[in-house]
């Protein structure tokens, strides 16, 4: 029998699917806010290290300025049918102070090493506190797959 719409996945399957996407995708939307200038959203390359999302941006970008003032961020993978949203607080690492294993993994994934650039770059590490994942309306209920930094079962 064929189904005509999305089928509700169990939480464990949603978590596996979200982790697979975090491990393989390249781009993530980063939403930040500044108390005086309001919201700001940009896509950035990202690396998932198994515990946190790593990104890199110019140290003078609006994103960098915003997270220094307000570290709470929201991240979103690009697919609007297979939604994965993360929420957490960004930790900032100037390029010269980023842990070498994270910077090397970022370079390996993208073939670009911000530590060798002339400009100043800031690495952002976001360990998620909340992760939501859903495909269509049947999965809206139970879409939280991580709460308070703990994966749900």
CATH hierarchy class name: Mainly Beta
Question: Strand portion, in percent?
Answer: 35-45%
Characterize the largest beta sheet: strand count, sense, and whether it forms a barrel.
10 strands, antiparallel
Class inferred from helices and paired strands: alpha+beta
Any idea what the CATH superfamily is called? Electron Transport, Fmn-binding Protein, Chain A
Counting DSSP E segments of at least 2 residues, the number of strands comes to 10
Fold and architecture overview:
- One of its GO terms (cellular component) is cytosol.
- Keywords: Oxidoreductase.
- With 153 residues, the chain is α+β, with helices and mostly antiparallel strands.
- It has helices at 11-24, 62-69, 100-110, and strands spanning 27-34, 38-48, 53-58, 72-76, 82-89, 91-94, 121-126, 128-135, 144-147, 150-151.
- It has one domain (11-148): Pnp Oxidase, Chain A (Roll).
- Helix content is 22%, strand content 41%.
- A 10-stranded antiparallel sheet has the order 6-7-3-2-1-4-5-8-9-10.
- The protein starts with 10 loop residues before the first helix and ends with a strand.
